[in-house]
Amino acid sequence: MKGWVAHKFGGTSVAGAERYRGVAAIVGDLPGARKAVVVSAMSKVTDALIEAAELAAKRRAGYKAKLRAIEERHLQTAAELLPETALAPLAKRIQADFRSLAEVLRGVWLTRTCAERTVELVSGHGELWSAQLLCAYLNSRGERAAWLDARKVLVVEPGETGVAVDWKASGARLRAWLKKNPTDLLVITGFIASTPEGVPTTLKRNGSDHSGSIFGALLGASEISIWTDVDGVLSADPRLVPEAVVLSEMSYREAAELAYFGAKVVHPHTMEPAIRAKIPIRIRNTFNPKAEGTWIRERAKAAADHPVKGFSTADRMALVSVEGTGMIGVPGVAQRLFGALREVGVSVTLISQASSEQSICFAIPAAQAKTAEAAVRRAFFAELHHGQIQRIVVEKDCSILAAVGDGMAKTPGVAARFFSALAKAGVNVRAIAQGSSERNISAVVAAADAGRALRAAHAAFFLSPQTLSIGLIGPGLIGRTLLAQLEQETERLRREFRLDLRVRAVADSKRMLLADKAVELGDWKGALERGRARDLGAFLDHVRAEHLPHAVLIDCTSDPALAARYAEWLGRGFHVITPNKKANSGTMAYYRELRRAARAANRHYLYETTVGAGLPVINTLRDLVQTGDRILKIEGILSGTLSFLFSALGEKGARFSEAVGEARRRGYTEPDPRDDLSGTDVARKLVILAREAGLEVELADVEIESLVPPALRSGTVDHFLEKLPSHDGAMAARLKDAAARGEVLRYVGSVSPEGCRVAVRAYPAEHPFAGVRGGDNIVAFTTARYKDQPLVVRGPGAGPEVTAAGVFADVLRLAAYLGAPL
Hints:
By secondary structure, the chain is α/β, with parallel strands linked by helices. 41% of the residues lie in helices and 22% in strands. The protein has an 8-stranded mixed sheet with strand order 3-6-2-1-9-11-12-10, sandwiched between helices. A 7-stranded mixed sheet has the order 22-21-20-19-23-24-25, sandwiched between helices. A 6-stranded antiparallel sheet has the order 14-15-13-16-18-17.
């Protein structure tokens, strides 16, 4: 028996007349001189036959209608497929089968019992009809096909782990059958077989795929193709990870590991015959036959940069822990434990034991948790009574996440990357198991975290983009500029760095816009106007989607009420990014609380733009402090508005009121310019810098020289702007005095161990501060290392573009922290 290629088509591939035509077209186009086609029953027919038997056993008359519906479906499909000459004999055989089934189920009705053998007899008919339908249709197309009732050749015996094939007897019967029925196109019934006594039986669940592999081995096929409804084996469940990729190839061992933990791959039993005969298996898509599919071979290539092939989850699990000092050093404890579970038929999925031997835990299907707990308590009744075993704990609602890949063996850092990804996604690991082969790392997590854990791990190994679920509050000048920048760069970041920045919610002070996948950034304004009334609770719940690994809140407001909630947001698992200075310049107690909340929740709180807009001021200071440098003094022009204002006063000779008006027209000032001129904004920045440098400073400790005349500190903005020209004289005099000394005026903030001060200061023309133009900021760090010549950071410090770009940079910095390859 040489030259055969085996093909297996599942139930969805033969769901109706149109699908039979599709399978016939595929078979006709397939290469190979000799083709063996194993078919399942039509979609859902096997379940319907079993349900009919169960209804009959319960004496419910509905079983007859169920049987009639199945018969009509097959006859209708045959009528759509076949010409009259071929239809009549096939219809006659199908009708005869249904009369026989009706008699069998009548007996079940009368006896109110449905033995396992009866169920196997009834449930196997779907494949008989499916194989005959396909064979008849192929012959009507001019093919020379023959169909084989697998019960005539395939001999199996039931066993504890499934059926065992009698290879010698089955091979002899198949050779004899082919000798009597020579053909190069063989259609075979899947799922069904016979016992050595000749009693019809089945290969149980996933039996049709198993049949494909068995007949591939019996025929000595060069390959076995399993035709299904997906393009191949995916790196993860696409329902949980839409970006899952089709794997080009994998080893038998990798496929078995993934299948064991619930991945949609061929069942391990299916592969056994192929593994024995070293026949490659190919997973292909009936609905997309041009797709290459996935090859499953004895050995598969492992890419150096992708040591993990795929991830899968086993859901509806329970974790049972047995803990006690009486277990330490006592031989046979594990034997007693797992022997007790075996006696009650509980299958253990995962085992983990502490090296101290004080505890052992195992994962089992949640449906068996009560049975398992009772069995363990019986087995260790004496130890529990005497306190040698202190606790038996059952944790339900668990899932197992498994990372699988032959390339994991001897590749350093795989476990670190895996568990780091889970930690960054806020997923707590309850138990860990890894085999000595290093091919599988499994972690038990809460069922509610399983989707997020899967996506995070999948992205960590660059099998899919790193996804950030983003909620933006405050689409004002900075917020809308940031959204425009995100719209422009998102596709590039996804393409080049596999980074998916997904803005899923936008809110202003009145309304909010929520999107299931992502906000359409080209039309967010109109959509927000049509959005719902703002409900911050609903907004947060939406952004913190369970199926997405990382949630980010960006606060682009100056609202102190929102800043007061950052610690709460961090505690709920959000990363927080903001240019809002109110949080870090609030009370010292709240400043400390923010840092505690971020550390406790393992979340990131980023605020580079609270000082210096897009300039790297805070990160530079943090690097100095963390590397052990000692801060002696920090000085800077920290307000883009006031930088522009004093530049205009000095260079253009403008009056103070004129410079304020021009800054306001250019959008440099707050809506009320007094917010800038009061110096409070600069003072807040000084407080932030001082605290980053390790000083304990409150806003009230900062000495501030306000540029708002006392008489104009109250009243409307219009009144302020109208009366400001009458106060130009005082500033003009100060400018004149400075010019006479060859100096210029600048509004400067300074931090030192002696205190913090915001004031107008005069500088000689050669000083770096004197050269600042427009809305630039400049910060000089005098430290133990930079004592003779300060470290200077200078650049644009005002304007929505640079501030938004700074927030954008914080988003990318966060993505890098979370594992994106930036």
